[in-house]
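Please decode residue identities from the backbone states below.
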């Protein structure tokens, strides 16, 4: 069998994830190397990979051709993108990479369009039939044409990592942040327990596994303390949400809030590995193994809840 070589792009600080893939190859008895790529030569993940490659910025016009060249150079079987702003770009070139023998782990272009714009995400949740925070019409608010119940959330429609997300308690605060945020959206503020769901979908969009992680503590938008929780209402709702997406595959990270009266309100989708995925992996959700098995055309036979409940993760630098 040929070596199963894997390329991680925008690898950044994703040391734990790369180590999990290394361990997976060893456990499966597969030969292969991990190649990490980033535009910054001091990205930590570069130094735990078997080989490193420096690449231009994601938005550089040469980015795709450089990546394809790396895939040929290293005989890459699987390319795993790790930041939001390259997902939509790579989704447009999946077939081009397949031509050189590389599977890009990215959902369809339409899925990425839905997930990248929080306005589209909101309407997707409504169409999927799940609860989501109320989205205010900005013109109605700024013209005092609607009753407002503070606090509210104001955030960029196309932001990530909680950058620009603010809780506002008055119209004066709202007007201030409205001037500072590009393409702002305004939503109701929902109180409750916040969960991140690591959802694994096969290449046909069928959901194989759902792991809800309670976000005990966060930092810069990423969970720093988390706990796996077998809440079957959340598991089933997460499964329905991801299977409603038009072309989801791989790890889909879904966020929701469980209110005190047990209403699940979905707030965000990121169609990639989240920063807290190592918790789900430690609990027994073998996403990297299942990805490799799908590429090798092997059958996956697991239950949706085939992972350990109550596993606590405490992240550190």
């Amino acid at each position: 069998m040929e070596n199963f070589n894997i390329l991680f792009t925008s690898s950044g600080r994703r040391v734990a994830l790369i180590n999990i893939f290394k361990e997976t190859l060893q456990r499966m008895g597969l030969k292969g190397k991990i190649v990490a790529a980033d535009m910054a030569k001091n990205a930590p993940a570069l130094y735990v990979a078997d080989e490193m490659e420096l690449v231009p910025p994601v938005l550089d016009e040469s980015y795709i051709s450089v990546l394809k060249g790396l895939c040929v150079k290293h005989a890459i079987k699987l390319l795993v993108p790790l930041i939001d702003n390259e997902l939509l770009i790579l989704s447009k070139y999946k077939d081009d990479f397949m031509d050189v023998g590389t599977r890009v782990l990215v959902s369809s272009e339409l899925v990425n369009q839905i997930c990248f714009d929080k306005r589209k995400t909101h309407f997707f949740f409504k169409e999927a039939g799940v609860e989501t925070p109320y989205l205010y019409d900005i013109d109605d608010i700024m013209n005092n044409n609607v009753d407002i119940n503070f606090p509210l959330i104001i955030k960029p429609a196309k932001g990530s990592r909680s950058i620009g997300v603010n809780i506002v308690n008055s119209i004066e605060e709202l007007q201030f942040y409205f001037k500072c945020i590009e393409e702002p959206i305004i939503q109701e503020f929902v109180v409750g327990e916040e969960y991140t769901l690591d959802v694994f979908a096969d290449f046909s969009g069928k959901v194989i596994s759902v792991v809800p992680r309670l976000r005990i503590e966060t930092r810069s938008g990423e969970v720093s303390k988390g706990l796996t929780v077998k809440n079957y209402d959340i598991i089933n709702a997460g499964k329905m949400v991801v299977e409603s997406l038009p072309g989801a595959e791989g790890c889909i990270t879904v966020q929701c809030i469980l209110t005190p009266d047990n209403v699940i309100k979905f707030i965000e989708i990121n169609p990639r590995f989240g920063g807290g995925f190592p918790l789900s992996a430690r609990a027994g959700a073998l996403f990297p193994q299942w990805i490799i098995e799908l590429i090798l055309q092997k059958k996956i036979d697991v239950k949706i809840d085939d992972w350990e409940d109550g596993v606590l993760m405490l992240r550190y630098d």
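Observation: Residues 134 and 188 are 5 Å apart (CA to CA).
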